[in-house]
Amino acid sequence: ILHARLTAAKGDLPAALARLDALITTDPSQAEAFLVKGDLQQRGVKGATSSDPAAALASYRQAVKLRPNSVAAHSALLGLLFAQSEFEEAAKQLADLQKLSPKHPQTMYFEAMLAEHKGDSIKARELTQQLLRIAPESGQILMLAGQVEAKLNNFSIAETHTAKAVQAMPKLVAPRRQLATILLRTGQADKALTAL
Fold first, then answer.
1. Are the C-beta atoms of 80 and 56 separated by less than 8 Å?
2. Among 155, 103, 156, which residue's Cα sits nearest to residue 134?
3. CA distances from 21 to 37, 120, 130, 135 (A)
4. Model-level pTM?
5. SS3 for 45?
6. Which three-class secondary structure string do you get for 145-163?
7. Chain-wide mean pLDDT for the chain?
């Protein structure tokens, strides 16, 4: 599994996937292999291949099936379900994760995401505030917190959280876009242009 990860990091996704497939063929009970395979299928590797979300979902589901007590496997599956806007399926998967580990930060993060999607900004804010006490530098949590505060029209807090998210994840487009949107909504067009 480590060799497959290293091979993928060098940019040879087909060889990495082939290694994982060989391992899975030899030992189909390797939940970790399915989890890594899902990660590679979801992300793809620059210059090698594009992502394959359907295959990644199948790999993550198999990882959860093989290791139902793995928060990492549930989280990987949930992350992809949310990314694909499969909210009903995500809610069902989240219920399983809540039974497994209700107070785990990953569980709380996905609860906040689902609450935000459903328009329950108050619950989403409560959860993101708890999460920020646990992981104040997490770009994902900061971005979600900024999104929630913007929906509650707390634009100065939203701007602060989102600006920190940009610093935590400087190469990602989404935090910059969110920051620019918040800045535009507060009449700071010049700052929005700078953020972009």
1. yes
2. 103
3. 8, 42, 40, 35
4. 0.87
5. strand
6. HHHHHHHCCCHHHHHHHHH
7. 93
